[in-house]
Design brief:
By secondary structure, this protein is mainly alpha-helical. The chain has 6 helices and 3 strands. Helix 1 crosses helix 5, helix 3 crosses helix 4 and helix 5 crosses helix 6. The chain is globular and about 55 Å long.
């Protein structure tokens, strides 16, 4: 019997590969899963200070800063100085960034639908419910995905 850790790793690897493949084949090929799951997903409701995005992402300030630079360079967001705090930066998605967010949500929905279809109509939703229970039990209730 394969260890649970190996099974979980295999499933996550397959999810990541499917997600990356779809991004690579799209107009948003300059995005990575990290860009989509860290910075972009937190910019859906208007501009934010970069420091707030760092808090929400749960990764290092350096990693988020690098992602912000990449996203700005590739036209997904704009960065401007804070009007009153000259050390702070304000981030806002561009039209391209908003389209990318929609596309990422579509990819996630497609992958989930494929997995639900593979598991069947009763096991698919049960799989999500069980994963949610585990994430809430062992992840301090803080969702780390969508």
């Amino acid at each position: 019997m394969r260890p649970l850790a190996a099974l979980l790793g295999r499933v996550k690897d397959e999810f990541d590969a499917s997600f990356a493949r779809r991004l690579k084949e799209s107009e948003f090929h300059t995005l990575s899963a990290a860009h989509a799951s860290n910075v972009l997903r937190h910019l859906d409701d208007g501009p934010h200070q970069a420091s707030r995005i760092v808090e929400l992402c749960g990764v290092t300030k350096q990693a988020v800063s690098q992602q912000i630079t990449h996203l700005e360079r590739n036209g997904y967001l704009t960065v401007r100085p804070h009007p009153t705090d000259h050390r702070a930066r304000i981030l806002e998605t561009t039209a391209r960034g908003r389209r990318a967010r929609v596309f990422v949500e579509q990819i996630l929905a497609e992958i989930e639908a494929e997995w639900v279809a593979a598991l069947g109509p009763s096991d698919g939703p049960e799989f999500r419910r069980l994963l949610t229970t585990l994430a809430n039990t062992f992840g301090n209730g803080a969702p780390s995905g969508r």
